[in-house]
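Quick one: DUF5045 domain-containing protein from Chryseobacterium shigense, structure tokens please.
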Amino acid sequence: MKQLFKKGTFFLLLFVTVGVSAQLSVKRLNDPSIVAQHKRMTFERWGDWRPYPKYFLGIQTNFAYATVWGIWAPSKNRDYKDGPDIRPLKPTGEQNLRFAQLKFQEEEAKKIKTASDTIHKRSVQDFAHWTSATVDADPLWLLYYKRMLKPITEFPDHPQNFIEWRLKDQQTFETLNTTGTITRLQEELDLIKEKYDMSRSMDMPRGKRFIMYHETLIKWRKFVQELRKYNNKTTLLLDYKNILKNHLSTALPNQWTPASDKQIVHSTMQQYKHRF
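--- reply ---
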């Protein structure tokens, strides 16, 4: 019975001690000075320096104030009270600046991600036009260069007569062939067709491919212009040759034979014998 009474007394004392400790801890957490410190360090205002001073006949009578903020307080406490506003959550506080910087970094991260995604998509699109397997599906090729470069594919690789060379007649072809112009034109044609085949069969960036298209088109236009020029010049030369031939044939007598040197001297002496 005595042991049971001792155990009950022990538990009662333990319960009272825990209750008193809990009350003390609650009172300590709700201390006005601590609450003022929390308000001072958050965002409300810089001030409320608890505990407050109390004077009697000009003498400080609040021992707590004197030891915390007053003459007996450490110098760092007085410097803290009389110093600048260092609230971290004020509009220009350090913590708010960190939040603003973090927000700025998040926005920059979004921009970088958007830019990287755009670059990735552009790279995928460029790769689709990089390979020669997709050149026929390119919009610019379908709208312009396919039509403009079609005559190159229709022109024979090795023309053999005036019809394949787009000349006027066989005589013009023979004249150009005799002067070696056909050989040089064939070399230029081979270069144009080779550049066209390279632009269609090689893997390269889309911009470079269209530059090759454009260069091929310019060379082809010069080739056609030069071919037309030689065609016109040769035709004109043959026309002049025919005119000259006809003129000479009508100017000379039908049975005319050249005179000998003796006849020429005799005729000259007879012509000038009365003048000297």
